[in-house]
Amino acid sequence: MDKQVFFNLQKKFGQKLKQIHHWNAILFTVLAITGFILFSTSFRQWFPQLRIWVRDGHIWIGFLSVLPVLFYAPKIAKHLKTLRKRKNNRANLYFVLFVLISLIVSGLVLTFHRKFGPGLSSFALVVHDLFTYVGVPYLIYHSITRALWFKNWEKARQKKIQEKHMVIEEGNPIMNRRTLLRRGTGTTIALIFTPFIYQWLKPYFGSSVSSSSPSSTLPLTETFSPLPKPLPKSKPPVGGGRKGSFRYYTVTRMPEINDKNFSFKIDGLVDQSQAWNWEQFVNLKREVQVSDFHCVTGWSLYHVTWEGIKLKDLLNKSGVKQKAKYVKFYSQDGVYTDTLTIDQAMADDVLVAMLIDGELIENRNGGPVRLIVPEMYAYKSVKWLNRIELIEKEHTGYWEQRGYKKDAYVDA
Question: Do residues 9 and 40 make contact, with C-beta atoms less than 8 angstroms apart?
């Protein structure tokens, strides 16, 4: 083959790889930005409807991100041949492909989590988080060090050194300027991302969150009096203690609740409306149950010991009128609502919970009283529960209005 023809073919091949590389970088950047937006509690709180659109966009862009990998797959063997004498470049390629494939596969599992079940979904979420925190800093480092302005800067620095005729003797510990710039860039990026990675890793190492801010640690012992005395099965927890960690989401600012402003009532289509203050509610008969807790975003907790009042007992106490078809739940935040059918609400494991593993439920976790519906995803388990209303016509809950499915049952 003529050398010029061979050179042109190689050039076209290189241009195709460059185009794939650029599209992959663009899609990965958009996925990283939308991913961090979805992870943000503040964004969820202030822009709940926009978050649903961002989530859908993140999923569709994730599907698109498969295309560069598919286009590259037939070219990988040829590309590796061109890199056979460049070990660092080959290692970089293997690393990038491993990160991309891990993110794509785990993303697909999370997207279709109902098909895979909570166990695999929880594992996929850990993988997705891990390679996001690994991949994003590396993408930034890779983009900076491969950028034309950075290379020109390196060349300018190198030229100045040559002009000064600096002599580095054998064994001199001074590293060359290029290495110093690249390591400095990498170190800076690592330092920026360290606090975020620490926050992500902390729950996996059993670190507890402590703060003097009442909005983060309520309810405190001094905030509620009297405190409910845990039943023997609740403390120590009969379930052995929950396995896993909560991720705390809110749709509004967390309401500050104490024993003075606490109230709980049942009304609507009932024979007798009921209302309790804190002291009265604490004295209601409670039971203990162990169940798993599944979030629709992919994470789960296992063997959680809850203590509270069975919902069916509260409903039977008030007397459900024949016209009532649905049970509507209200949150004290004034925004969050949801519903169950009468049959769903009468299930034996649906609980109006007050304690988790023998301790009063924290404010950030929906305490002091929250609904627990173990067979359904957690968006049905209304936080800061303070009112139950029996109604005739179906009510569409907060998250269902924003795109979540009404069928919230968890597939085993």
Answer: no
CB–CB of 45/83 below 8 Å? Answer: no
DSSP SS3 for 59? helix
Listed in sequence order, the DSSP H helices in 261-405 are: 278-282, 311-318, 342-345
Indicate the pTM of the whole model.
0.72
**Percentage of the chain surpassing pLDDT 70?**
80
Element (H, E) at 359: strand 359-360
Q: CA–CA distance from 134 to each of 130, 144, 180, 182, 335 (Å)? A: 6, 16, 22, 17, 37
Q: Is the pLDDT of residue 272 over 50?
A: yes
* Per-residue pLDDT tens digits for 360-385: 999 989 999 999 999 999 999 999 99
HSE-CB for 391 with a 13 A CA cutoff: 16
Half-sphere exposure of 356 (CA within 13 A, CB side): 24
Q: Which two tokens stand for residue 215?
A: 């909005």
Q: Are strands 326-331 and 359-360 parallel, antiparallel or unpaired?
A: unpaired
Q: How far apart are CA 44 and CA 189, in angstroms?
A: 26
CB atoms within 10 A of CB 150: 15
Per the CB < 8 A criterion, the answer to whether 322 and 339 are in contact is no
All residues at 6 or more sequence positions from 275 whose CB lies less than 8 Å from its CB, including other chains: 263, 264, 265, 266
Alpha-carbon separation of residue 253 from 43, 246, 264, 367, 401 (angstroms):
12, 18, 20, 14, 20
Q: Tell me which residue of 261, 232, 229 sits closest to 355, measured CA to CA.
A: 229
CA distance 375 to 370: 15
Look at residue 174 and tell me whether its pLDDT is greater than 70: no
Token code pair at residue 357: 């593993």
**Alpha-carbon distance 181 to 148, whole Å?**
14
Question: Contact at 8 Å (CB) between 291 and 310?
Answer: no
Q: Walk across the sheet containing 326-331 and list its strands.
A: 274-276, 264-268, 385-391, 326-331, 337-341
State the fold for domain 3-205. Answer: Fumarate Reductase Cytochrome B subunit (1.20.950)
Q: How many residues does the chain have?
A: 412
DSSP sequence for 252-291: SPPP---TTT--EEEEESBSS-EEE-HHHHHTS--EEEEE
- What are the extents of the domains in the chain? 3-205, 220-402
* Top-tier CATH class for 220-402: alpha beta
